[in-house]
Amino acid sequence: MGSEQRSSDAGILGVSLARESRPQEDSLDVPLGIITLTLPLADIKLSDLRNLIVDEIPSVPTPFAFITREGWPINSSQELSLCVERVVSCGRTLRILRSYPNPKVGVIAAGKPAGFIFIDLSSPLSCLRDAITQQLSSLLQQSFQFVDANNWPVTAQQESQLNVYDVLHQSVVRIFPLGCSAAIDEGDSGTSSSDLPGLPPACKRLKASLPKQLMFQSHKDLDRSQSTTSNGKQLLLSYVRAEAAQHALLLKEELNLLGYSVFLDVHEIKLGTDWQDALNFAVRNCEVFIPLITPRYGETQWTNREVKLADVLSKFILPVNFLNQWPPNCLAIQLATTQFVPWNSNPASPLLSPSDLYAMDRDQARSVAQKLADRLFSESMQTIASVSPGSTSSLTKKSSMLRSCPLILPSDLSQLSQHREGIPMVLICLHPKQQHYGEKLQALLCDYEVCLSTNLFEQDSDSDNCLFSQESIVDIEQCDAFHGTLLAGTQSLVRFQTKADEAGVVIFIISEDFLKSKTCRQQVFYCEHRKCVIPVRAEDFCMPGWMSMLIGTGTFEDIRAAGFDAAFTSRIKRAFSCDENAHSAKMEADLSAKVHRLKTQLPKQIFVYIAGSTTFYGSRTKELCQNIGRDLARLNNIHIVTGGFYGVGLTVSKSFHAENEKKENGFVYHVLPERDDQDRTRCSQQNPDKTFQKVPFGKTVFAGDCVRERENIVSRAFDICMLIEGGPGAAHEAEQFAWNGNTVIPIMSTGGAASGKFNVPGQIFERPLGVKAEYWQMLSNEDASSDLVSRSVVSIVETVRDRLQMDSPSVEPAKMHSYFSQTFSSASQHDTGPFTSVRRPPRKRGSLSRDATLLF
């Protein structure tokens, strides 16, 4: 019987290659092949099998070592005494492991695999440090510290007393940026340690505080010196206040708990400080720029400029996305190749549902903060400048060096405003139907290198091939290859970005087709403010609000006009001589100074600016205005401000003033321009010399050199605009309020601009965060009584006022959280979403007719 058993041991024996990081788990082995045996396993020594394995399995790695069933390595002297029977598995498989002159040790840097090294395990830690620095030099170029097998940090003084064994976690050593402290996170629900190579399933995941100084660079930094970051915050949160103020607050608190210093405007910018200067300083001195991408992000002046400035200064941009697609339409070119962290990780949840924005979920903010920290930890251990151009690093921007940027930049970055070497470049953005106009301008610009945008896009100009749906968001978050995939789908946008960055001047050939094209709109959003832009009118068109907000309405060259060729080429020369940029910068500085001067003349309170028609067209509009003024006077901490013209503004303010004479609860202010060359006598008390008289009641303040400039000033100075009826002037005011990220309350049932006419931007009809749907819907109800509409208006103003007061840095966080939780929970009980757009119902008799002419 024994002889039969021994002979049965002969025959086929499998050979498998064990996984180096998990030699104890044979389920992870790689099958290499089989060998044939003529002797029983008990009669064969391991040393006798080496040549047989090499001869019969050509793919076997050499040199190799045998390992036991449990994964323990066997040295060459032990092979002489051990028989095959002692180490073969029950499945008749012999396991081997690739061997090296020195053991192979994995390196986990800040919780992420960084590579491996070869080192004698008895070596002191100083040798281990040298090996990591030398063998992983392309990845690790900053100071770090070890943690021992107990997850305790090892100081520099202790390293001389320890060797590699003391910091080995099975076959892995762990390091963290210098200044971090590591602790076991018992409750972390994120990636477990078992997901990382070389760590046994029983190990807890390390959670580390953040380095004092994040070390990030981008490809752009290779071509210019990096500005200093003294007195700056590591992270800057950029957001639309009306949509994500509370989210930004929660996220800042959670990031602070993780060890980051975070810039949040309401906490950092003191009263009396120039807002634009403070934000410019903050963006310049932060290391990572985190925009909260809500529906209006990039479509307001401040967020639009902040994200562009961050891009120009080569800041790492790591967005938090609230949308169900990527990239956002208005930032599609800039963010097309940028990865993001989704706010809502549940793809089944609808976009911006009450659970997303109304319910302020601290657990969700904590989860997002941890995802941001994980991403930044991983990147902080790498020198991005050494990564090859084909790298998929999520925080590396793939674009050419930006030149000819008219943004006001620090002196040490002044080269960004200089033109490229060689022939200057002009980029012409146009719709394919205006290709012949593009070729005409190209012929005129024979002294320049000219690029037509139509030559950069392979598909139709209205293609949405760059957008990813909500279903793709989870895949994007989890897939390491996302960045390369996204690049492959957005090559046209990347080509445009490269040319736009290099161009000295950008020309828009504007037509109806251009204005309707989503791709052309993306081009305008990308180039505006970062380039000197020259708009050219190709045909008559109706200017949409988004376009006039970006480039204005008074600087067009008409390609059909006599003498166009000479005027156009002259303007191009002025643009390249920097005269155009200097003029724009001076106008912006003058406007900011006038806004500041106006605000210093007014109390630091919340104002409701009244915009609308100067003549009543609706049969009940006057009564409604009187009721609104009367009811607003019952609110505390609210002042009324008007443009000083007849009609809606004076009626609301007069009623408010009469009511407040009894209570002394609020005040009325009128902001008039110093003068205006147009005849405004039909709508105001204008003097023969074109100046304006003071309004008989309230306080009159003068600001701006004309009505148009006054409209731009008030839109920056005040937080709330109420729109009742209104013509082109009122529409422009509402447009500017929206562009500056302020709240517009349109009384839609009154018609005119308030109902969507005169190209007023559609975003003003989106219900503000926290406002109850029943009140917002009442604004469009033509059958509701004036009293009912007025009470709804007051409730909306009260909600917006309270939210603005909660944004103040003087408010305690606990009080702020309580307010937002109660208000938004109540507002969302019967809502389908916070940004519901309410459209005006069909017009009834007595409302404003389509062809009515409004004075403004």
Please specify the SSE layout and strand pairing.
Blueprint: H1 2-8, E1 11-17, E2 30-37, H2 46-56, E3 64-66, H3 76-79, E4 93-98, E5 104-109, E6 112-118, H4 125-135, E7 144-147, E8 168-169, E9 172-177, E10 182-184, E11 206-208, E12 235-238, H5 241-257, E13 262-263, H6 265-268, H7 275-285, E14 288-293, H8 301-312, E15 316-317, E16 320-321, H9 332-335, E17 341-342, H10 354-357, H11 362-380, E18 425-429, H12 435-444, E19 449-452, H13 470-478, H14 482-489, H15 491-502, E20 505-510, H16 512-516, H17 518-527, E21 532-537, H18 545-551, E22 557-558, H19 564-576, H20 579-600, E23 606-612, H21 621-632, E24 638-642, H22 648-663, E25 668-672, E26 699-702, H23 707-717, E27 720-724, H24 728-739, E28 743-747, H25 773-778, H26 786-806, H27 813-827
Parallel strand pairs: 1-4, 5-9, 12-13, 12-14, 14-15, 14-16, 16-17, 18-19, 18-20, 20-21, 21-22, 23-24, 23-27, 24-25, 25-26, 27-28
Antiparallel strand pairs: 1-2, 3-4, 5-6, 7-9, 8-9, 10-11
Domain TIR: 231-376
GO biological process, one term: signal transduction
Region (Disordered): 823-856
